Amino acid sequence: MSATKAWVRGQGLLDKHLSGASMDYRKVIALFFPLLIDQAFIIGLNLVNTAMISSAGVAAVSAVSTVDSLNVFLVNVFVAVATGGTVVVAQYKGSGQDRMVSKAAGAGIASVSLLSLCIGLLVMGLHNPLLTLFLGSAAEEVAANAKVYLIGSCTSFLGIGIVQAVSGVMRGIGRSRVSLALSLIMNLTYVLLNFVFINMLDMGVMGMAIAVNVARYGAAACALYYVLRMDVSLHLRLVELLHVPWAMLRKIMAIGLPFAAEQLFFNGGKLLTQVFIVSLGTYAIATNAISGTIALVYQIPAVAMSMTLVTVVGQCIGGRNIDDARKFIRTFLWLASFSFMLMTAILMPLFHPLVQLFHPPAEIVDDIFWVLLINAIAQIPLWAISFILPSGLRAAGDSRFTSISSMLSMWLFRVVLGYVLGITLGFGIIGVWMAMNCEWGVRGALFLWRFRGKKWYEHKLV
Length: 462
Known about the structure:
By secondary structure, the protein is mainly α. It has helices at about 1-20, 25-55, 60-95, 100-125, 125-135, 140-155, 155-170, 175-200, 205-230, 240, 245-280, 280-300, 300-320, 320-345, 350-355, 360-395, 400-425, 430-450.
């Protein structure tokens, strides 16, 4: 009887907080769990990859970490445009316009693919000045490894652009299992090839560059095969993926361009803090790389919630159901904060086994511990309002406000305060991370203020 009562009570809570006129908790959970598994694999495999490359030495870890910061900066530009496609597709889906869903899907895939190709070619042409800018006085061995990895990464951008575009479309129509399948194909292939090239053939960073290209283009081929041959609802043809309809592109870019600009400025600020860290030496770069990789593990459930919320709120707004959109955003904020409490309770006692995966020098283990502890405490109240909330606002079409707020808070607080705490006051890598946590609070306060008003849902895309 007690088990039955507990089930009924649990179902009542789900109905109250995760169900509405737009969708019920079963649909929300069906969207969330594939994305949760996806994030667990992506971040878990990223942890394994960093651990594998650490066997090639601190210089290799530092090179991969520095180039990956630049990669995140670049890849997030076309991921932002893919997010614009997700929002437009979700709103058309919510409004019941199936033919427009197909047009938006084709435009999203075509535009992201073209953009990713152009970015890859541009950065390959500018790789020498970029590496000089971001590596500065780094050791010669670090610079040599970074050059190989940067060029190898850029050649793979078209592959990951196609995968991100197709995944965004699938999430927009509520098929997050497809994005999970593509992610698993890409990331498992990447890790397996890394094991062969790095651990078995001792190819170091060159092996990692080859692995990332094979994995991304293999997944891109699967993504295109799915939308052109296997999907029965979108009815996409190859010619639609080679043509960008400007009317639809404007709708996608209304969301995607402000978000892309935000990502450029936001990740540009992160890259500038990376320059601060480079000036602190190779050990500081390694500390930042290892801490960042482990910190991502704490964020697995919350990142999945952020991605789920884009589809949920997008479909609510497409159906003009503002009350549902508000309720879902509030619920996801509380759930994300609870997830951080749970992950901290699980992972902090496992610090030493986790950190030893990376074979760090004994001199940096204490710094890694303090960086992770401070970050774990700060993200419980601050991460959700800083990252979950803007996902909901952006899904409603409020992209400009969220982007401007993120850009200003990054440059006025994280960059400036990071330099003051990390360099001027001598707190080093811990000071840089503390500045990041402070910036979360400032940005989150702006988003909460916006959410309490009405302007965030008054934009009309479809």
